[in-house]
């Protein structure tokens, strides 16, 4: 049994007086999970060309903050859905700058450890957090190998109507799901990168062989961060 299933059974035992035999709280949470607009035929993903990603450029970070109503991160504990990191290859000394966000894994460990079902994966591969179910335990933050999730410590004001957030909840990159469910075909970070002339971020349907992202993945080698974990992230990187 997975850790998530074990926690569900434990929770059901506590609330056994109100649940029918054989029904776990985790199953109820999953049944109530919102997934409007999600299609199992689609797998949204992102391809990042690190050879086009400039050191010191924060266009994608700034666009994400503006789109989702986040303040620029000043401290390590401040919510940040996308961050720029610099890496260096020890043997050659070659450096690269790249954005890191939720990798939207096919087998997300954050979902596996969540005791309430607040962390879930949609049919189209997008990994999200239901703030109404999140109890702030932060198990998912500990399970994420990419350090891609943030915790909201302070009360929030002036929120975006399409991107509800809340104190005491965990949050992370949503691949601009509010845009996708309205019919848009790109994320704020990819749009900003393209408009700035960098062209380092390509967003699209990995399951569509005719999409730009699929053609780019077939044409040139790409890698997944921590591929050794076999989580099958939906975010791919070229030039690493």
CATH architecture of the largest domain: 2-Layer Sandwich
Strand order of the largest sheet: 8-1-9
Number of domains: 2
| C-alpha-based Rg, rounded | 18 Å
Q: Note the beta-strand portion.
A: 15-25%
State the end-to-end CA separation.
36 Å
Mean pLDDT comes to 87
DSSP strand tally = 9
CATH class of the largest domain: Alpha Beta
What structural category do the secondary elements indicate?
A: alpha+beta
Please estimate the helix content: 10-25%
CATH topology of the largest domain: Alpha-Beta Plaits
The tally of helices reads 8
Q: Major beta sheet, specifics? A: 3 strands, mixed
Helix/strand order, N-terminal first: HHEHEEHEEHEEHHEHE
| Anisotropy-based shape | globular
- The parts where pLDDT drops under 50 for at least 5 residues are 6-35
Description:
A 3-stranded mixed β-sheet has the order 8-1-9. A hairpin with a 5-residue loop joins strand 4 (119-121) and strand 5. It has 2 domains: 1-32, no CATH class; 42-238, Alpha-Beta Plaits (2-Layer Sandwich). Residues 6-35 have low confidence and may be disordered. It is 25% helix and 16% strand. The protein has helices at residues 3-14, 25-31, 59-68, 109-113, 139-143, 177-180, 188-195, 212-219, and strands at residues 44-49, 82-88, 95-101, 119-121, 127-129, 150-151, 170-171, 201-205, 235-238. The longest helix is centred in the first third of the chain and has 12 residues, at 3-14. It is α+β, with helices and mostly antiparallel strands. The protein is globular, with a radius of gyration of 18 Å. The protein contains 8 helices and 9 strands.
